[in-house]
Amino acid sequence: MRSRRGSGQPATRTSLRCAIYARKSSEKGLEQEFNSLDAQWKACEAYIRSQRHEGWSLLPTRYDDGGLSGSSMNRPALQRLLADVAAGRVDLVVVYKFDRLTRSLADFAKIVEVLDGHGASFVSIT
């Protein structure tokens, strides 16, 4: 059974609502039918499917920031994602690589604070 970080208590929920966050820092290639954001999404989607036995389920909403740097938290999809975490709609944020979430340790601490404050967590699949 999964335990909540820091509480030492088993989680009572039987399913984890998973949201995928994808980011690409440049706009180059985003116009292609299948681009880097799609590749990140597909890899994360496959990982979530592989964890179905643990109760993971993919939320349909896409949180994609194309053409935006990871050095700032001023990204529309990231802000929507954090708002959905705060609203209790997301239990687990899944990213392809840690640096897709942020490139700033200070911002990472802020993101983790939001996640922890609402009983959510994140996982990087690579």
UniProtKB/TrEMBL annotation:
The molecular function terms in GO held by this entry are: DNA binding; DNA strand exchange activity
Q: Name one Pfam family in it.
A: Resolvase
The source's superkingdom equals Bacteria
CDD domains (alphabetical) = Ser_Recombinase (cd00338)
Which SUPFAM superfamilies would you find in this protein's record?
A: Resolvase-like (SSF53041)
Under the heading PROSITE patterns, the entry gives: RECOMBINASES_3 (PS51736)
Which positions fall inside the Resolvase/invertase-type recombinase catalytic domain? 17-126
UniProt protein name: Resolvase/invertase-type recombinase catalytic domain-containing protein
Q: Which organism is it from?
A: Neoroseomonas lacus
